Amino acid sequence: MGKSPAVELEVEDRVVRISNPDRVYFPARGETKLDLANYYLSVGDGIVRALRERPCMLHRFPEGVTGEKVHQKRLPHGAPPWVRTVRVHFPRYNRHADELCVTHIADVIWAVQMSTVEFHPWNSRAADTEKPDEWRIDLDPGPTCPFDRVRRVALVVEEVLAELGAVGFPKTSGSKGLHVYVRIKPDYGFQDVRKAALAFAHEVERRAPDDVETTWWRKDRDPSLVFVDYNQNTRDRTIASAYSVRGVAEATVSTPIRWDEIPDVDPREFTIATVPKRYSELGDLHAGIDDAVWSIEPLLEWAARDELEVPDEQ
């Protein structure tokens, strides 16, 4: 079968060419490359807010999600002049990369043209890539952990955040876990943010010891518990953004949710087939995140009190 003719999408004030638009990317329901582009257009403000001015690693699937997966830090060749980049440094290798820096929905659609399915941004921005402005709470269930346990832990997270005076913005991971994002003042480096995240994780574990653990080495964890993964705040560690599609046959989406949805939420229900309608009805549930900035100083005080340390970044 020959390739389908390219189509041109008008994306606000720009035009993005989508080649081979009929290639099936997600076999469960048969969604195509063009369906993926149209999905991202339908959540345009939300995905741009999630990625805006952050270094962004791309997970590309040139043959669809059943084919090879390419983890790409550097911007793919052939970008139009309006696509911005931000340079980041990797101390371990003493190298740098110019990564995608989204400022416009056309940047996202161009990345889809380059076969990008998943968007994995840093938790810092181009203005100072060494100072995170986003604290990420990743509730990562073990292989035999029931999702009810993840829900229970999320409500403990909500409780602790409320006591701290921090506003958390929850979302599904698009897989088996839940994420909560907190916008923070960019006053500290990655090590301090990790230390703050570890102090928070310990408090959640203290309150829910039958559901949570914070053991770093996977081989030492109880597979039935939720790991509060504080290391997702490590420099250059990224997870799928809000509204990012995941590279699975069902085209699930990492979807913002309300706290009151958590007791009944089923992440499998959020896909590129269902999220556009939800978005049109509810808007972006993370729309207020940039107005809810919090300082991690109380968590650093907890870390000092408990004499917590995190490993050096290598």
From TrEMBL:
<dbReference type="Pfam" id="PF21686">
    <property type="entry name" value="LigD_Prim-Pol"/>
</dbReference>
<dbReference type="InterPro" id="IPR014145">
    <property type="entry name" value="LigD_pol_dom"/>
</dbReference>
<dbReference type="InterPro" id="IPR052171">
    <property type="entry name" value="NHEJ_LigD"/>
</dbReference>
<protein>
    <submittedName>
        <fullName>Non-homologous end-joining DNA ligase</fullName>
    </submittedName>
</protein>
<keyword id="KW-0436">Ligase</keyword>
<feature type="domain" description="DNA ligase D polymerase">
    <location>
        <begin position="32"/>
        <end position="286"/>
    </location>
</feature>
<dbReference type="GO" id="GO:0016874">
    <property type="term" value="F:ligase activity"/>
</dbReference>
